[in-house]
Amino acid sequence: MPTHTLTPITPKRRYRKGKNKILPSRVAILVVCLLAILALVWFAVSQIMGLFSEKKHKYTKGSAPWTIGLDAGHGGSDPGAQGIVSEVDMTEQTVQKLMEILQKDERFHVVLCREFGETVEKPSMRAIEGNKQGADLLLSIHGNSDTTGEGYGFECYPLPPGRELSEESLEFATYLAQSFEEMGARLRGTEGIRYAYYEGENEDVKVIREGSDQQVYDSQTFGFLEYAEVPAVLAEQCFITNQQDVDLFGQGEGIERAAKAYYHAICAFFEVEPLE
Ligand SMILES: [Zn+2]
Fold it and tell me: How far is the C-alpha of 90 from the C-alpha of 184, rounded, in Å?
């Protein structure tokens, strides 16, 4: 019986020996597994960050030809506001005219964020379409309205402060406001520039802040601007409920005047002289 007490030593030692021998390869396998897991996690995280982060590339104006992404606000089953003219009629006619002007200028290409007559549910989808088609600049055209018919003037909304492309968007907005003023528009807010935010518990209360308010807010702005990967501005061309505004920019010659104002601002943004 006492000899029994000694017998376990040998197997134990043998076992230890064996364990020591295979230890390096086990560690190696473990390290390889860990590295593989780390690589997978890194890949997954980078993919997720890529999907949700702001654009990673640094935007530059580059050189001609530039691709201009035009969005005629509303469309299809959504006619927008109704006034002396229908908002969608005005936005589509203006985009049509602006497209014709830009197509005569070989420094520009035009892509549309939606087809004429097409219904697009979310404004963000229009910006995504513009991005996909390689736009260097995105412009969404809308018409303002009110119940009194007294509201008037031009205003536009760049991407708000604190975003990667805020400065470039504001630069384009500034040219737009100047260009419309030169064509006779009365500018609303701070020289025609304002910021829109969705606030409140459900982020459904639209709050308009003046262009002079350069504070950075957490709130989202228009979906069209949020999803733009290039400088982007949403313009309220005129009040479709005000006769003087409609005469200036809302129908007939007014559409041509508005299109030319947009064209001049686009040229100014890309630092070239307009052809007309
Ligand atoms: Zn609208």
Answer: 18
| Architecture of the domain whose range is 66-269 | 3-Layer(aba) Sandwich (3.40)
The CA-CA-CA angle for residues 250, 266, 233, to 5°, reads: 70
Provide the whole-model pTM. 0.80
- Domain extents in the chain: 2-52, 66-269
CA of 246 to the centre of ligand 1 (A): 15
CA of 126 to the centre of ligand 1 (A): 13
Over residues 156-176, the mean pLDDT reads 97
Residue 75 Cα to ligand 1 middle (Å) = 10
14 pLDDT above the threshold of 50? no
